[in-house]
């Protein structure tokens, strides 16, 4: 069965953020992920990981002005210096947290800018980031995100993400395969796992029920079957990654909501 990592941005919201580490460990999680670490000192987060025997498996590089609606800088011409500075900050946190993967959000496609210019900027930034991260032994991940959750997001499809990582050719540039986003945009999820996982270019999976983004036993995807597919293909190709639980508990932020909804987990 895949190794599951608790997404602390979405799960255990009845607790203050730093207390979510202990809550996840109490429920048997051994890995955690979340959107951003930058509101906290890296040493404070590292202490929480150590105290609870947890592994940090993923977080995002700075996305620009999140509160103002920005969702990444990588495709934005003219923001390259800001992108690089933010990525350097991410690598500092990755070092302190012993985190092997950093997700780079593509960003929103600006109105009036030709897609070719955005594509060129995106690929140049990713090539630079992959080269920089390789010196630290880190992977850089890109994620196709559905345009319903983030309208205007530059990268939406698995085939496009895999074309980009193959074109750039850096061994540590990989795809973050979110089954929820894939189902909404493309479907045929099981066959895409079979197609892409053996390439060595899938760095991480994420899950949530479709369409409401609740627990994975709610909605139209058959997650037990998909976990079996991941296990089968991973065993054949040697993949040893994580599956991030990036969903919103159906019971919301009330006490015990996340724990009560873990019946889906084998």
From TrEMBL:
GO molecular function: hydroxypyruvate isomerase activity
SUPFAM superfamilies assigned: Xylose isomerase-like (SSF51658)
Keywords, in A-Z order: Isomerase, Pyruvate
Any GO BP annotation: glyoxylate metabolic process
Superkingdom in the source lineage: Bacteria
Domain annotation Xylose isomerase-like TIM barrel: ranges: 22-264
A Pfam family assignment: AP_endonuc_2
Xref: InterPro entries: HPT_OtnI_isomerases, HyI-like, Sugar_Epim/Isomerase, Xyl_isomerase-like_sf, Xyl_isomerase-like_TIM-brl
Assigned protein family: Belongs to the hyi family.
Protein's UniProt name: Hydroxypyruvate isomerase
Upper taxonomic lineage: Bacteria, Pseudomonadati, Pseudomonadota, Betaproteobacteria, Burkholderiales
